[in-house]
């Protein structure tokens, strides 16, 4: 195998090096030497150029040529999709034998190049994303992170992590930019799906369970985003201004746990700012808290392209050199950028000497230390022959299925009218069954996911389960309300020198009234722009400009349509020199439409004028032509399918993701109308929700007799959903986030501190729709006989809380037992309750188990007024139950 040839070549090179060492010892190449000595020896041999490149990480590889990497590089997120050319093609001996093998081969080739052909022979750290499975083709996709948290099962999380780590390391990847351990304290945030929920204890336990197997296997984990990636309004990367107490109690805890207990050796910073400084250049967070207070020995990387944020976004630096200097001086170690070509923007600060040499050397030393710890200098290659064993691996698929099963949360399960049993589980003896919803037929895997391997849809899972039944399927109305569409480029033309050309002619001005001589004239194929971070062009002010587009529009049919503008006002639209829309004001984002009749293939003169004096520009020219707005017909077809069936499932979903925060938390499109129409059939049915965050349900929850939250369940999700719906698996997942009744309650978390008065609204309660920790079962459980090994204990003592849980139902099932604590009287206000322990326990019908929680000083500790960690004397309320709202046992523990 090729990897063996490289190992042989490396051995010969080491032998030659050993001979040279007699006259000039290369301590850094001697694996018997302490790593600290090897780091210092290598560091003193490096040029400033070589030091810079060890602090620069990018997606890519050697496909574009190896000469530009002669000084080395930190590492690559390997891009195996582009074909190499020239010398790189010969070096890589490119193969098309499959993506997993291809990646392993390419990484081996890269390591060989850097070890043997760069001056100092410093290997790279290949890195990638692995949020819930390696973000690559032929890798198993496990349930989304929020779903893994919903299992409340750290042992299972460890099994998932080990499986992902095996697939990751087999390809040569030695760092993952995972996990996301930000606290999802506002579920409007589009990246809630990537987190482990709202609670610092649950997030810490799940985070440690995830990172530990990777680190033990020699893969660097990178918990992110330090310290919080969501701000006011649940908006991504908004500035945060938490006080130190809130940081220490809530937001820092999972990071500290992953470092101290999980062994994480890298941290990624957030895009936003904290207390006036970008998190990428925040001296307090990076130097004081992380490196000084915690003694973190790993390296800190930026989020992609964030180092320049001090210049272009936060305006704390006048140029890229300044933002780079701030970042490295204030604790960042590695610049994560999206292209090799950007390096000159950041290298300038190194070349000009405006970064402290001590900061540079410290950053480089941190990177080198990890490369030595990983053994990359001696053993950088992977066995390519072993890669395929992890492609569609049966054991990994079994783990993915178990994780999907355990993640399912039963939110509602009413009794059928006039009958003793509930809607779920459906009997497998049904003769016919209807499956409704696009998300039932098209598996959705969630953000930061690979394409999946043999992914099973819910429809296929149900068909497999009901081999002898008739299964009807209708897609229903989908997640989108297709009211308007962007006018396509094929409809626009303009004239140049008397000749008709495609697109519209745009003229851009650095003023707010589109007058005078334009700064830029160009052709735009259509009007579909979102300049929220940047201007239309470097010549144009991003927050004070105007534009005018001229040309012709042509429809392919004769029809009367609604045409107009969607975006930030103000604007004016003219058709055939007639002013049809006048919205020349600046207030908000909206959609303004007007009726206009077009004759097929006839050119109509069009003119659009727009101005933006405040930035964050969004502009689309839209119409209703070609819009398939037949959602009512689709609902009618779905109703007909349900009427023919004995029972049905309606699969609905939400839209979310990175930089896709949600102001409205109801089901998008016309899915609520779909549920209500199905309810009118009178047939037993369940709603299954696909998504990674909350859904408000005020308009339809009373009509839906059963609701299951399936999250994004991964490759085996279809089988897992079918198992739950038809009783082959008794659901026991629990919510890691609080579901509000209405968006106006947000942010809404269970572990808030006491209020100075009440917590209700005049027109709505302050209580959630579904509380943190909530989830139903097909069976029932009884808690009893709480006792303590010590009812009174010293501040440094431990005690054991013991109790009995009994399955009082007729089915085997699992219960997630949760321990909450409250300090009755403290010197500073404390949360009304805090999760401090949980266990997932399986019980047969009638079976009882005695369970216990050890209560330690750490669980009772708090930060006093002087921000000192103490255990104060007094009474602590111990609450044990099935959710944060469902306390079954309660006792008092006294600390003297």
Summarize the structure.
This protein is an alpha/beta fold and 896 residues long. Helix content is 26%, strand content 23%. 49% of the residues are buried.
* Secondary structure: number of strands: 39
Proportion in β-strands = 15-25%
Report the principal-axis shape.
globular
CA-to-CA gap between the ends?
Answer: 67 Å
Largest sheet: 8 strands, antiparallel
Question: How much helix is in the residues?
Answer: 25-40%
Radius of gyration: 30 Å
The helix tally amounts to: 22
The residue ranges in which pLDDT falls below 50 over 5 or more consecutive positions are: 1-23, 81-98
Counting helices, strands and paired strands, the structural category is alpha/beta
Mean pLDDT: 94
